[in-house]
Amino acid sequence: MPKNGYCSLKIWAHTYPLTKRASLVVNFILFLQTKLQKVGGEVSWLLLRAPRLNRIAEATVVEIISKIPESQRKKVSEITLDMAGSMAMIAKRCFPRAIRVTDRFHVQKLATEALQEMRIKLRWEALDQENDAIEQAKATQTEYIPEVLPNGDTIKQLLARSRYALYKKVSTWTENQKERARLVFERFPDLKKAYDLAQELSNIFNNTEQKLYGLTRLAKWHEKVRQSGFKSFNTVARSIENHYQTILNYFDNRSTNASAESFNAKIKAFRSQFRGVRNVEFFLYRLTQLYA
To answer: pTM for this structure?
Structure first.
């Protein structure tokens, strides 16, 4: 259990009406809060996780969360959340004293997705080139022989199989991944630059202790993205620029959504064992018995 204790709030909005389901979840959270207080935990962090909500749903969630006593909600000092506007609105209205922190892993995920988008684009281009070569071979009645690289991959296979290596740090690569990464970076230097940008962003969060240094390093990273000219990374840089204040709040206490995401993964795994949930009340009761 974290030093200060925490509550993980998940708003479900699938089958049952949102009001009913949110009410059940709030009761569940209050039960968890009571458990924490009994063991001496101070509820000062509230980790929010919810699906995308429309305006009506946002108002409903605010109304339901407001049923938690205001004195309790004012004790929340910090909230970690993603960059969704609905979550920011809910946090601001329900927990006005809490400092909002954008989860670093959501920021890093944007950079990783931009890198993978570039890889996928290159793979489609390789497929088009291969199809053109096959059609030309048919037209000239010759045999098409694809280029095979030293590791046995063709170009399209190289781009497809390098997916997982690009998610990982260099220090965690296997020997096969090292060879594949060497080949793909030699063949596609822009992919190497994009990989370095994604890793540099991760290193900023890992190695920076003070908010001022974090701001400086993010600004330098932003400038490198601008000079690279990569459209995918420009989108990431703009998102960081629009949320830089809450992103920088991470460097105060280095708070993340890891606990909420882990707890949510446990709930999903528990739910999947029974192929879904019919009785929500009983499902939440079982969660309190297993995880509270």
So the answer is: 0.78
